[in-house]
Amino acid sequence: MKTIRIKGLLGACLLLPGLAACGASNTASPGTPDAARPSGTVTTSCGLSTRVPAPPERAVSLEQNATEIMLSLGLADRMAGTSYQTDPVLPSLAAEYRKVPVLAKQYPSHEAVLAEEPDFLYSTLSSAYADEAAGPRAGWKKLGVPAYLSAHDCEKPELTPGEVRFDAVFDEIEDIATIFGVEKRGERTVKDLRVRLDRAVREAPKNTGAKVMWYYSGTTTPYIAGHGGLPSTVSELVGVDNAFDDIHQKWPAGNWEKIAERDPDVIVLADLTRGGDGDSAEAKKRFLRSHPVTSQLDAVRHNRFIVVPGSAMDPSIRSVSLAEEVSKGLAALYG
């Protein structure tokens, strides 16, 4: 039996020059277990260990990030359900997504999940396992159903590392691949992501000295990126300063007067599709240009914006695209 664990996020993501190019083709059929796989695994995530006796055949992904990781591994045919779609599914995964039953617009209830007779649950967000959602993982363990949770959002905050690093995202993808017996598919997926990340870092303009504000949501109270989240890591990798990295919260509530004091050179705008106040990138731009304080920010006056999908700011299969888009945006502004 093979034991896998979500690896820690404490080490920095090391991007070594000269990574070999990765082909995108996959010789194994999607979802087909690799040869010579052990008879079972023990998965340990966020402190809870559960035995997975065989590759799951009726898995349920409880939110979109988990869904897209599974689909990227070719596992649509082994999914009994999905839920909580927050954005349009990645175009490359749309056809596979349509094969999977949607159990709920947001999180399904415990009863709704149980009715699907799942043999594996997966979420990158602990809120999926709340009492009012699918229910606690420990309860599912008693029912013999493994329930996997990403390391970056454990139920107990003390188990969640203080920084999100790409190595942890890649480890999670390989963990899921191991559980489903598609290790080679997982290795190829991660290799491709590493090559893309290495390229994005290499192509980012050097020595810009730019101070960047990552603006996620809100107008009256803006939520911006502090230290420890994916934006903080991407800032470090592409060689810019997160203007609020001294705030040791991943998404602190900001204040426009305080933001004006720091006067960021560039603003990265999360483009959210949920329709709330200031969610879309265009709504953010309109607000920033009309507000008496924000309209005087250097980034606003000089139109130094970089737009990225809001979903890419969370650790997921989309994380590398965040580094790519910011690298391209910086090159357009400073190249």
Automatic annotation (TrEMBL):
Residues 1-23 form the signal peptide. Pfam families: Peripla_BP_2 (PF01497). Residues 58-335 form the Fe/B12 periplasmic-binding domain. Keywords: Signal. It comes from the Bacteria. Gene3D superfamilies: Nitrogenase molybdenum iron protein domain (3.40.50.1980). Belongs to the bacterial solute-binding protein 8 family. This is ABC transporter substrate-binding protein.
